[in-house]
Amino acid sequence: MNVKKKLLCSIMSAVFITSLSTDLTFASPITIAEQGSFTVGGSYKQHAGKFSQDNFLSEEGQRAYGDFAYVEYQKPVKAKKLPLIFQHGGAQSKRTWESTPDGREGFNTMFLRAGYAVYLVDQPRSGEANLSTEAVTPDTPWAGNPMYGDKTLYILSRVGHYDEKGEPVPNAQFPQGEDNYQAFQQSWTIGSGPLDNELNADVLAELVRQQKDGAILVTHSMGGTIGWRTAIRTDKVKGIIAYEPGGTPFIFPETEMPNIIDARFKALSASAMGVPMEDFMKLTRIPIVLYYGDYIKLGSENVGEDKWGTEYAMAQKFVEVINRHGGDAALVHLPSVGIKGNSHFLMQEKNNQQIMDLAVKWLHEKGLDK
Hints:
The chain has helices spanning 107-113, 150-156, 178-185, 197-209, 224-233, 277-280, 303-324, 352-365; strands at residues 5-6, 14-15, 30-46, 63-76, 84-87, 118-122, 160-162, 168-170, 215-220, 237-243, 250-253, 272-275, 287-292, 328-333. By secondary structure, the protein is α/β, with parallel strands linked by helices. α5 (224-233) links the parallel β9 and β10 (237-243). α4 crosses α5. The longest helix has 22 residues, at 303-324. The protein is globular.
């Protein structure tokens, strides 16, 4: 149900977005023309029988609703033509793009300041879209062991390491301190049903189609494959910014599948899936940029560095194939352009303004900021 709220121009209000840091520094105001939230997609399953108030707790004759995305959006006054639609990664939600662990501005308001309408998505069976028509299964990611993954996820995300006392030591750009560590750990979520990236792409494509002039996708991590698949489903995707795509398959022509480089722990290796050439060619018709942070090294004793070494190697192959077929894809390893110390969650780190500025520059160069 769409519950968007349009604000009349005659009573346009300035929304003051503040930093939640301890010094309570106030940022400049953002004037919002329209904001709201709504759901996209979804389905239901009907239980047999007839509903009766005499047995109102029974499943008889009732429906189970689910498999929709939840979307929260804001449009600034004089918004640019193309909105940004933000797709989170695995075990995450739209919180990925909101305030940082140490309370600074996240990408949602930072891109609003740059003049873009911003749509934050909770994919089906995640976050505020956590109703599922399918029960949790043993292969539902993270659901089998949701309470004991803090060190695993910290290392796999390259946020930092642990000292001899077992205390977390963050890498250079991640904010230090127990409060920030806890805030990061409290950002994880588990799926309410099996991970289904075909469903996720179907729903995201529906959201893109609702945009008059199309949209630019901004994806993270396991959301990368959803972005590629969405662009195959609709020509209204006008560009893709992908932050450290991986953990789910990169897309290749089914006749040009790459060799897989194995991680030391094989289950952590990057993966690929093949599609018909006709579908793959749709990815060559839009500009795409992939950003990767620091601490990425094939063969590293650190499982996170090694895992993302395989993903980066796969990203290189992905970009090469797109460009060989006439596309416009770029791969940016941040240390190679002088930006060091970033983890897998680069959009939440101390230099997130610098990270965001790179994307703003790329959008301008590709003519996507009109």
